[in-house]
Amino acid sequence: MERTLSIIKPDGVGKGLAGEVIRRLEQAGIKICAMKMVRLTLDHAGMFYAVHRERPFYSSLTEFMTSGPIIAMVLEGENVIQRNRELMGATNPKEALPGTIRRDFASDVEKNIVHGSDGPETAAQEIKFFFNDLEIQH
Ligand code: IDP
Ligand code: MG
After folding, report:
1. Where are the alpha helices (DSSP H) in the chain?
2. 138 CA from centroid of ligand 1 (Å)
3. Is 138 a catalytic residue?
4. Is there a contact between 48 and 107 (Cβ–Cβ < 8 Å)?
5. Overall pTM > 0.85
6. How far is CA 26 from CA 81, 83, 132, 136, in A?
7. Which H or E run includes 70?
8. pLDDT digits (tens, 9 = 90+) for 96-125
9. Residue ranges lining ligand 1, Cβ < 6 Å
10. Phi, psi at residue 116, to the nearest 5°?
11. Were 10 and a residue from 15, 68, 69, 137 both cysteine, which residue would form a disulfide, CB within 3.0 to 4.6 Å?
């Protein structure tokens, strides 16, 4: 059994897509074992995306991530890291497959509706960033 962190980004919440994203996760048989709505500060967005610090889009990305509330979720299931990434689609919605969340709803490569951890180590780190053990259902 594997866990991953999913985020509905400010554009997803703002466009009223939280229900649609959650519906797709549930329909895929993925268990949601934690959920909260938060608004990140610039410091927290910077820490969350620290791996992208040197990238040209870092400051725009971190500002975007603070532009409104986000919904963070812990997902659980077999191979859920990869399965969530498949539901999300490629980072750039133009390259994402039809039927994926990003292809169906994202406006551009930055405002791409959802985040999903990319591997077991980042998943563990990212889950800890948002949730303590008491907040995660077993
Ligand atoms: P991922 O979210 O598909 O894992 P990453 O490469 O980890 O993609 O990038 C993190 C986030 O940074 C993306 O989801 C997107 O919001 C933003 N981003 C990635 N590449 C670009 C870019 O070339 N221009 C603007 N924003 C980008
Ligand atoms: Mg990533």
Report:
1. 10-14, 18-27, 42-48, 58-65, 80-88, 101-105, 120-130
2. 31
3. no
4. no
5. yes
6. 15, 12, 23, 17
7. strand 70-77
8. 999 999 999 999 999 999 999 999 999 999
9. 52, 57, 61, 91, 109-110, 112, 115, 118
10. -145, 135
11. 68
